[in-house]
Amino acid sequence: MKVLVGLGSCGIAAGGRKVLESINESVAKNGLDIIVEPTGCVGMCFHEPLVDIIDGDKKYTYGHVNAEIANKIVESHLVNGKPLTEYLIYTNDEPDVFVKNQLKVALENCGQINPENINDYLEVGGYKALEKVLTSMKQEEVIEEMKISGLRGRGGAGFPTWFKWDAALKSKGTEKYVVCNADEGDPGAFMDRSVLEGDPHKLIEGMIICGFAMGSNHGVIYCRAEYPLAIKRLNIAIEQATEKNYLGENILGTGFSFDLRIKMGAGAFVCGEETALIESLEGKRGMPRLKPPFPAQSGYWRKPTNINNVETFANVSWIISHGPEKFAAIGTEKSKGTKVFALSGKIKLGGLAEVPMGMTLREVIFGIGGGIKGDKKFKAVQLGGPSGGCLPESLLDTPVTYEDLSKTGAIVGSGGMVVMDETTCIVDVTKFFLEFTCNESCGKCTYCRVGTKRMLQILEKITEGNGTMEDLDELEALALSVKDASLCGLGQTAPNPVLTSLKYFRDEYIAHIVDKKCPAKKCTALLTYNIDTEKCTGCTLCARKCPVQAIDGTVKNPHVIIQDKCIKCGNCYTACKFGAVEII
Amino acid sequence: MCNNCKSEEMVKNFKDEAIDTSLLNPVIEKYGKVKGSLINILQATQDIYGYLPLQALNYISDNTDNKKSVIYGVATFYTQFRLKPIGKYLILQCQGTACHVNGSKEVSQALCEELKILPGETTEDGMFTLEDVSCLGCCSLAPVLMINGEAYGNLTPAEAVKIIRNIRKEDLA
């Protein structure tokens, strides 16, 4: 028997460490001879902290465990052999919907193995693909397999992986670099964190295979500093892989050598762009370079460099060991394999879902994510973070593939899916994204530096109730110019949230401009607070909470808000116990 | 000193304190000769002092091949680097998309009121520093705060304030 406790960042935030301690104590107290180990994130963040009990072929998963429940589980399940059905979410015989509709490739080991122990990875067939590559394949054959598999970059642009590897192989020079982009900067995306924390060896194996294929002996993982746990586990994994000679000189006696190190990012969204990332690796400000030359010709220290993101590398060993045809059989004609999506926002079951490409948005959001929190009305789904777009309900049957999503104006991006309901204001969210890109613009290109600022100012004007219809035309014109005149992906895609929201949610902009109303009741300046005299009991609480004395009234008599004085802070609305304060 | 580039103005961005620069010697020994390691040096410096003191940056410039302007450029480009000291507890408030749609603004407002500071500032008693970050990657627990490396999820404004008060209470005890 074996006990696994989910200790990804999300599990820890939900209290996983205390659960692990409690199980350890309880197991020791009862004198049980059972292995208790931490594992990574299985993707069901909404059930954290999670505890798995593996008994032979059977696997029981408990959710929302705290220290007390953990004790009960040990007593009942481990000591007396009775599963505690009360807290059981599912067993491997009867998986719940969240798990059932997924297909795991990149995340196959996350939440199943102890990421801090290389033997766990070896037990599930780890480093077998590397052995196969090093002992029986030629460089061109590895690249050919990648080509057959149809794997495309999972970081955003969806560029064919084999093409980049091939270009790097064909570049002259003996000093070449493999770089992993683990600077997952898209707000709302956390699949790379899951791989880094839950299955770091899979990434390492993918990188070594890439190194062999393109003829490189050096790898660098550029990981964001906001992921301290990921960095810690990567360090452990690199150390263990070096000990077992999967890394280092003359790997497994094959003559191939590969070293790997981690470089910590310092917090800049633009460093997700490959040439900016290279600048940052070289210790400089992360500002993009002009392309061409592409990194495959001239990258890190002007040497041929191949950059892929974490999820892309995490697919490599699976493709080699299961065969590229099997990978290519998943998904659609042009978008093959699976993609991990990070479901968050106003969704019932927020977490990570790995699905075959081609599944529709509706199937992902409602079939796996369980629909909208509090059964409110679905309004939009934001795909691809600040570079992506907001799609309305009418497009929910769009299949998630690179081609279908780009037709709508959104992108697959890194796979963030932030779901919004009727209480989310689209103009406000668009403003939020522009604030983000405006802050993160490196300042190199004028259109990106000034254009995002100007777009943000227009959006601020609209949310403050001072917008005009001409502003919408200007916004659109600016958006198209910024797209055209920016050097890198940040500027080229920053206008996407503006363009898609104008396309699909123009009504909401018009409501802000013409009717001076925010339909979602989010934009403070456009709200009017009012007291329903029928419901008001005259308790005076709101008047006491009002910071500007804008509420008039005497005890036991209905109160009134003096609109001229009201600063719309909403204190009265939160204070009222009788629901008498309404927002119109 | 050049008058046109407003270097005097720039100095105001720093908090000038007397520090023990000898603590930097091992860092410079390790990275000083390795090309492209300015970011590593600055990260190690911040680990030592909690921020990047002006004196430390001058010391780095004098003892490595990096020009002052380059160091200042890198130190102000990345959000990780701070030119002013931080409080005993560093509160990172996630402003990612999922947190935004789940009410991070309200949580932030409550914290600002409780601590009487704005994001980016430190309380007078040097206990708390409040900072906005773009995404902590715990989106399904939104809204999220991270205090000295520990994440707190599914917050309401009232709960966030309670966490701060508890920390203050425990710290005094």
Automatic annotation (TrEMBL), chain A:
Pfam families linked: Complex1_51K (PF01512), Fer4_10 (PF13237), NADH_4Fe-4S (PF10589)
Source superkingdom: Bacteria
Gene3D superfamilies registered for this protein in UniProt: 3.10.20.600, 3.30.70.20, 6.10.250.1450, Glutaredoxin, NADH-ubiquinone oxidoreductase 51kDa subunit, NADH-ubiquinone oxidoreductase 51kDa subunit, iron-sulphur binding domain
Residue ranges annotated for the 4Fe-4S ferredoxin-type domain, each copy included: 527-556, 557-584
Record's keyword annotation contains Translocase: no
Keywords: 4Fe-4S, Iron, Iron-sulfur, Metal-binding
UniProt keyword Protein transport present: no
Family membership: Belongs to the complex I 51 kDa subunit family.
Record protein name field: NADH-quinone oxidoreductase subunit F
TrEMBL record, chain B:
Name of the protein described by the UniProt record: NADH-quinone oxidoreductase subunit E
Gene3D superfamilies, per the entry: Glutaredoxin, NADH-quinone oxidoreductase subunit E
UniProt-listed InterPro entries: NADP_DH_HndA-like, NuoE-like, NuoE_dom, NuoE_N, Thioredoxin-like_sf
Family: Belongs to the complex I 24 kDa subunit family.
CDD domains from the UniProt entry: TRX_Fd_NuoE
Pfam family, one: 2Fe-2S_thioredx
PANTHER family, per database record: BIFURCATING [FEFE] HYDROGENASE GAMMA SUBUNIT (PTHR43342:SF1), NADH-QUINONE OXIDOREDUCTASE, E SUBUNIT (PTHR43342)
Cofactor(s) the protein requires to work: [2Fe-2S] cluster
Entry keyword Plastid: no
Signal sequence segment: none
Keyword field: 2Fe-2S, Iron, Iron-sulfur, Metal-binding
The keyword Iron-sulfur appears for this protein: yes
Domain of life: Bacteria
